[in-house]
Design a protein that fits this description.
Number of domains: 2
Largest sheet: 11 strands, mixed
CATH topology of the largest domain: TIM Barrel
GO molecular function, one term: 5'-3' DNA exonuclease activity
Distance between the termini: 36 Å
CATH architecture of the largest domain: Alpha-Beta Barrel
Shape: globular
Protein name: CehA/McbA family metallohydrolase
Structural class: mainly beta
Organism: Paenibacillus mangrovi
Radius of gyration: 25 Å
CATH superfamily of the largest domain: Metal-dependent hydrolases
Length: 432
């Protein structure tokens, strides 16, 4: 599967005999934190001593890094995890800097014969991989009906990796994100005006006041959000209800070409984006469901944004989008497309000096009859029907082209029409 990547893991096991005389003392079991770790998982158990059960031993659990205690659960837990964004309650997420760490034990109660603790530590390493999620959702913190926990639970059930809850002109949702979920929470706010909407992503509090009277005020809000570290997306710019009617010369990063179910507004945004690309602009395209409440058709991660990310962190995902490593599918289980030219992929620029400009287009989860369309600055280059289910590989000579991108169109029986199923960002070619 093109979309799957197994993360590299390693584990170590330590044993520490605790004598009765050490009762009521704190014990450290040092270990070396390797480089490039994304998450650690620690578990321990008290082993029987000389055939006798040591179940009546009480040994507390915690951990320190090279600078401070990073968590303590006393006798309440036998295991915990720490990641860069999340951790077991009682433990602090954050940097997993390499160096000497230690598992901490409090020998609260030790039998006369002593006891042995066995500790297993599993290191999960940062692995570049495709992560999927939704960059545009709403909750009860504005005009949505989903609670934050409900949004997170739905995304987790879909197997998604991240969500941005972009409530209108508020940031309270960013302060109340649920912690006990595997889904990465990307801070977000939808800057909502009477003449256009935009998402500010990646910062908890991107603005102090959303009210604007004119273009100068819009520029100022963007300036403040940018100064605070936000990535800025122009949302549904060609929507029939709330198009972007402000100046397009605002300081933005990405454009939402796919909002909710595929519709004419998305077709207009796609055509506009193609014009920008053909004119030489390198503008990253993203999507988002804009889901507000239960709906028989519009659901979370429809469309689904796939990002090639170095790690499962907010900055990892946003950094991947910045580099244009983005594919949008109609749903998490939609067909997938990836483009490569040698070591370069979607979003990358192939150097002028590289003579081999053959692009390999890898496709997966196709249905027979799906249409694969390849676009460059010249417009539609090729249209190839999928003859069977599953995957296929195409090639294209990128010589004398500035970029190439792919689309997959599918006939949906429920809608009784052919609609976009997948769109990739381009791979670019440097000119002299």
């Amino acid at each position: 599967m093109l979309k799957q990547a197994n993360q590299r893991q390693s584990s170590v096991v330590y044993k520490r005999y605790i004598e009765h005389s050490e009762q009521s003392s704190y014990i450290e079991v040092p270990f070396e934190m390797p480089e490039h770790v994304e998450e650690i998982h620690v578990r321990f158990e008290v082993l029987p001593h000389d055939g006798e059960s040591s179940s009546h031993a009480v040994i507390d659990l915690g951990v320190r890094d090279s600078a401070r205690v990073r968590g303590w659960s006393g006798g309440a837990r036998k295991e915990f995890y720490i990641g860069q964004e999340k951790a077991t309650p009682g433990y602090l997420p954050g940097s997993l800097a390499s160096g000497e760490w230690a598992v901490l034990h409090n020998a609260y109660k030790v039998p006369e014969e002593g006891c042995t603790v066995m500790i297993e530590i599993v290191f999960t390493f940062k692995t570049p991989r495709w992560l999927k999620g939704d960059l545009h959702t709403h909750s009860v913190h504005s005009d949505g009906s989903y609670t934050l926990a409900e949004n997170a639970a739905i995304m987790e059930s879909l197997g998604c990796d991240f969500i941005a809850m972009t409530d209108h002109n508020t940031n309270s949702q960013n302060l109340a994100y649920p912690r006990e979920t595997s889904v990465l929470m990307i801070p977000g706010t939808e800057f909502t005006t009477n003449f256009g909407h935009s998402n500010f992503l990646g910062v908890t509090d991107p603005m102090d006041d959303f009210r604007v009277k004119g273009m100068a005020d819009v520029h100022e809000k963007f300036r403040i959000a940018r100064e605070r570290g936000a990535r800025i997306v122009l949302n549904h710019p060609h929507c029939e209800y709330c198009a972007w009617e402000w100046d397009f010369e605002v300081d933005h990063d990405w454009v939402e070409i796919w909002n909710g179910l595929w519709h004419e507004r998305n077709s207009r945004a796609l055509a506009w984006w193609q014009e920008q690309l053909a004119a030489g602009r390198r503008l990253v395209a993203v999507g988002g469901s804009d889901v507000h409440r239960p709906d028989p058709h519009l659901k979370h991660a429809m469309p689904c944004v796939w990002v090639w990310s170095e790690e499962k962190t907010v900055q990892g995902v946003l950094g991947g989008i910045d580099r244009g490593h983005v594919v949008i599918t109609y749903a998490p289980d939609g067909p997938f497309a990836n483009l490569h030219c040698g070591e370069y992929m979607i979003g990358d620029e192939v150097p002028f000096e590289q003579s081999n400009r053959e692009i390999v287009i890898e496709l997966d989860d196709l249905h027979a009859g799906d249409l694969i369309r390849l676009y460059s600055e010249r417009g539609l280059e090729r249209e190839i029907p999928a003859e069977s289910e599953g995957g296929m590989v195409l090639t294209f000579d990128g010589k004398e082209r500035r970029f190439l991108r792919a689309e997959i169109w599918r006939y949906f029986e429920q809608a009784e029409t052919t609609l976009m199923a997948t769109v990739t960002n381009p791979i670019y070619f440097a000119s002299r």
